[in-house]
């Protein structure tokens, strides 16, 4: 996982600031949730997070958020308030003070997916 991030950095796909932050996030999820870096979905989520962070900081956020039905289903989960707390914590680690709702809907979806992968 860290090698993938190094490749993105060396090819100027992500910034050094986001690279350093995503390493902290990866370590957090590995340590706290016991996630495997070899899991393809986990790798995709971390890649999305680091790329979205740079997009947001550059003012180039996406226009459309997560499908409303999927979001409503996720929001009805009993764990949703916990997922929102973790999302806020992770956004802070990435240096994001304000996250557009469109991006945040996908962040919450990704955190939910990671939550379901925990060991």
From TrEMBL:
Coiled-coil stretches, from where to where? none
PROSITE patterns listed in its UniProt record = PRD_2
Determine the domain of life of the protein's source.
Bacteria
Q: Which residues form the PRD domain?
A: 13-119
Q: What is this protein called?
A: PRD domain-containing protein
